[in-house]
Write a structure and sequence with these properties.
The protein is of the alpha+beta class. It has helices at residues 5-18, 74-83, 177-184, 191-198, 204-213, 227-246, 282-302, 304-330, 334-347, 379-423, 427-439, 475-485, 514-526; strands at 23-31, 34-41, 44-51, 58-62, 87-92, 99-107, 113-121, 128-132, 138-141, 252-256, 259-264, 276-278, 357-362, 367-372, 459-462, 468-471, 491-495, 503-505, 535-542, 546-548, 557-559, 563-568, 575-576. The longest helix has 45 residues, at 379-423. The protein is elongated. The model has no long low-confidence stretch (mean pLDDT 90).
């Protein structure tokens, strides 16, 4: 998901088609490192967002407006002074660099025609927006970079503007076959790495795609390539460069488990077609991609406190459980001590004072047994001592048997909450999880605070055969789905022996087709702790076989006579209900 030079080339092509000859109607700086330009064109008004944020640098066309500060920052005021109402005469990209140069024509204070350049450098943490004159002298920049910060280039008013050459990479748009063969296959690495290490503007994703189009493995070492492999890679590379020169882009987003995983200015054919979503232009793609990624990131950030509470409690309970199990192991000796005591009562008369042990026959097994003795005690006193040990360990065993069950149930509950946090997609999902933690005593409800309003609803899918499938996002929803939504002949699915969602299929009294069973099982596998595994075993049974255990945590059930299937976790082909 790199904002690479090919993405920039796609943007430049789109900008040239709609922004050339447009006039800068409004210039705003809603964030310290972001510009929002409103441009009037012959086809209507366009908004261009340019962000030089170190964490998320972007440039794209958008319909969204942003609130500007009451007092415009200095850089914004400078742009308004020089190029307000200026005309965009050209939009260019040097080579395949992550740079876009907007040349703007305007009238100065004397009424003379002048040209300025607004240069957007989208280079990760080094991103910047630089304003230059006709002679490429920097007038100002949204970020000032002094020699103390960078020894490569100063970005300060009055300094000359140039593109720093920090890496010895070739321009892929001008590379010929000879240069390609020499530079790429001389590198001691995999083919896809060699591509983006050799040429500027290529991301790992695009390099993977070129290798895939060449019919080779992306992890194949350059040294292992035969002549046919090299020729195929060159043809795939040169074909993509020709598409870039011709402006033949087809941007797409790749989804993995319904989460945007990658994007590119070309179809990533190494991914299944059903996982790809195409766009006519790159700007809507970037806006959609980063909006969805930001939502996932925001949910992760909002759930941080809940995750910390759950992980702390889980760690504490696991330590407690491990200690209890060690103590339980010690109690395994209790029956041995009871038998020692019984045998001493039976055969103790044969023991001579001062004996260190007594040989006897264990009348439970018929085997000979050696009983250690305390030489300072009589046989009867030794028997009494063994019975005391037995009774102590017996009491410990009985107490621990109950305690370990409670702690184990608590661990399972906390693991299920942790899985629910992984599944959560919206802030209202977190509200319900927090409410569950309050009800379980892990979070204290503030004085006078009412129970939160629950608006989160289960996931809803429709199988290819038209059956409705519901997936609980957390334990409270699992409980409601299984015991309130589902009826006796509906089918119930759950990942075997691991935390996960309850999946309900409304059967409507029908015999479900195999494809619906498989889709429901995939949902149960995907929305479980094993979602990253290739295959997950899923139990399924009619809902009437599922029982609630008295006193158990929400969503914890028992069932018998179930069926099972081993299924993958890919749900990309399952239709989500509107």
């Amino acid at each position: 998901m790199a904002f690479d030079g090919i993405t920039i080339a796609n943007l430049v092509k789109d900008f040239q088609s709609c922004l050339i000859d447009g006039r800068l109607y409004k210039i705003a700086q809603p964030e310290p490192d972001e510009l929002l330009l409103t441009i009037k064109t012959k086809n209507g008004q366009q908004r261009l967002c340019i962000s030089a944020s170190a964490s998320l640098p972007l440039i794209y066309l958008t319909e969204a407006n942003k609130q500007s500060p009451m007092t415009a920052p200095n850089f914004c005021m400078l742009l308004r002074k020089h190029v307000q109402n200026g005309r965009i005469v050209s939009i260019t990209q040097p080579g395949l660099e992550r740079i876009i140069c907007f040349e703007i024509e305007h009238l100065d204070e004397m009424g003379d025609l002048r040209h300025k350049k607004l240069i957007a450098e989208i280079m990760g943490k080094h991103s910047n927006i630089i304003f230059c004159d006709e002679e490429d002298k920097i007038i100002d920049a949204i970020k000032h970079i002094s020699g103390l910060v960078s020894s490569v280039r100063e970005v300060l008013p009055g300094k000359p503007y140039f593109i720093p050459q920090t890496q010895e990479k070739e321009n892929p748009l001008t590379a010929d076959r000879t240069l390609f063969m020499e530079k790429v296959f001389s590198k001691p690495t995999d083919c896809y790495k060699a591509l983006y290490m050799t040429f500027t503007g290529l991301s790992p994703a695009i390099s993977h795609e070129i290798c895939h189009r060449a019919g080779g493995r992306t992890d194949q070492a350059c040294a292992a390539c035969q002549e046919a492999d090299r020729e195929a890679l060159w043809k795939a590379f040169s074909s993509m460069m020709e598409d870039i020169r011709n402006g033949s882009f087809a941007p797409c987003i790749v989804y993995e488990n319904k989460i945007p995983a990658e994007y590119a200015a070309f179809p990533l054919t190494s991914y299944p077609e059903e996982c790809r979503k195409g766009y006519e232009q790159i700007s809507p793609l970037l806006e959609a991609y980063y909006a969805e990624k930001n939502m996932v990131t925001r949910i992760r950030q909002r759930s941080f406190d809940l995750r910390r509470i759950v992980s702390t409690a889980l760690e504490r309970n696991i330590k407690k459980y491990d200690l209890q199990m060690k103590q339980m192991k010690d109690t395994e000796k209790r029956d041995k001590y009871r038998i020692y005591g019984e045998l001493l009562n039976t055969y103790g008369s044969s023991a001579v004072p001062g004996d260190k042990s007594l040989e006897a026959v264990n009348y439970y097994t018929g085997e000979a047994i050696t009983i250690p003795l305390d030489t300072q005690l009589t046989a009867q006193e030794n028997a009494k001592k063994y019975f005391e040990k037995y009774n102590k360990l017996k009491r410990t065993f009985e107490a621990l048997s109950e305690l370990t069950q409670e702690v184990h149930a608590e661990i399972e509950h906390l693991e299920s909450v942790s899985t629910a946090l992984d599944i959560a997609q919206k802030e209202e999902d977190l509200v319900q999880i927090k409410e569950e933690l309050i009800e379980s005593g892990y979070i204290r409800r503030k004085g006078g605070q009412k129970r939160a309003k629950i608006t989160s609803r289960p996931f809803h899918y429709i199988s290819r055969d038209g059956y409705h499938m519901y997936v609980g996002k957390n334990n409270l929803q699992n409980e409601e789905l299984t015991f309130k939504v589902a009826s006796g002949n509906d089918w119930w699915f759950h990942a075997k022996n691991m935390p996960g969602s309850h999946v309900i299929v409304k059967a409507n009294g029908d015999a479900l087709p195999d494809s619906t069973f498989e889709e429901a099982a995939r949902l149960a596998a995907h929305y479980s702790k094993g979602r990253e595994l290739e295959k997950v075993e899923v139990d399924y049974v009619e809902k009437k076989q599922v029982k609630k255990v008295a006193g158990a945590k929400p969503g914890f059930v028992i069932y018998h006579t179930n069926y099972s299937m081993l299924i993958d976790t890919d749900i990309s082909g399952i239709q989500a209900a509107e």
